[in-house]
Amino acid sequence: MKVLGIESTCDETAAAVIDGEQILSNVIASQIDIHKEFGGVFPEIAAREHLRVILPTIKLALVQAKLEGESETFADLARQVEAIAIANRPGLIGGLMIGAMTARTIAETLGIPLVAVDHVYAHIYGVEPSAMRFPLLALVVSGGHTTIYSLKSHTEYEILGETRDDAVGEAFDKAAKILGLPYPGGPSISKAAAAALGAHDVQLLPFPKLDNPYEFSFSGLKTAFLRRAQELAGGDFRMPSEEIADLLSDDQKNQLAYTFQESAVKILLNALEKADQEFSPQQIIISGGVAANGRLRERAGELFGDKLLLPDLSLSTDNAVMIARAALAMGLPKTDPRELRVTPN
């Protein structure tokens, strides 16, 4: 069954066509370069960019899927898909509305079934559904979300814990900004950490103490990192964060990056280890943008071995393949286009 997926929850405008397990196309228009100067996503600019590129992105996905038709008009191409899946929650309100209105208009105009999908849950489907064995645990780690799910099936699941404040991806961005490293912070911290010399015996940052072992908090980790960086730069808590990077050597920045990455990875995997011991899943999935982190992948592989499933790097960050896969795996629960609503963060 051919499903068109559409994703516009944050700073990627994405469209993809799948036919069952086969990926026919996967198009992503990233806004990373646009938001670099702000050190994070600027919501109003993101919304305008979604509006500018969403229809060309969807058409390109339809064309690349090589759907056969009498013409390559948008309508003729779109009529050949059998359902449209749209991420309608959570995310930035502007991008959500643009994606939802586009999907709704196509579905209602052409009479194609519409399926509303939770963006965070859909990240699990960076992994092929046919590879999943239930029950399983899934840790979704991204720029805006850090969540552990327990799944009995594609449609039976519960959230074991979420972040109380910053998501792990946000924490990486903020740590990178303190060190004067480029946005997005995840790849920058990872690269700097890999260059750290003699940092393997470094003292990790303090871990949060929470009543629920499956909940996360990264605001304290961010503050502890700031204090460590201020101290290494020769100051105290009064030193402005924007002055720190200029007072640190490259070696010091690399050591701090290593410390932050090791601490963040350990926090994530400690919670996942506890869930593994309690629920004894057949498989464990780690997905989302932070799942592209090489150190996280390495340590998770050491801990969980053959139980671990990881998405391809191309399907770790926001994409529309995961939206289409999730809709199909859940049995395409239809949404009336006129009743489609969006739920922001």
What does this structure look like?
With 345 residues, this protein is α/β, with parallel strands linked by helices. It is 42% helix and 17% strand. It has twelve helices and ten strands. It has helices at 32-35, 43-64, 74-78, 93-110, 119-122, 168-178, 185-194, 219-232, 241-247, 250-279, 294-304, 321-329; strands spanning 2-7, 12-19, 22-30, 83-89, 114-118, 136-141, 146-151, 157-162, 283-287, 308-309. The strands form two sheets. Strands 3-2-1-4-5 form a five-stranded mixed β-sheet, sandwiched between helices. Helix 6 (168-178) packs parallel to helix 8 (219-232). The radius of gyration is 21 Å and the shape is globular. The chain starts with a strand and ends in a 16-residue tail after the last helix.
Write down how many β-strands occur, each being a DSSP E stretch of 2 or more residues. Answer: 10
Rg over CA atoms: 21 Å
Number of helices: 12
Helical amount among residues, as a percent range?
A: 40-55%
Structural class: alpha/beta
Give a summary of the structure in a few sentences:
By secondary structure, the chain is α/β, with parallel strands linked by helices. The protein is built from 12 helices and 10 strands. The mean pLDDT is about 95.
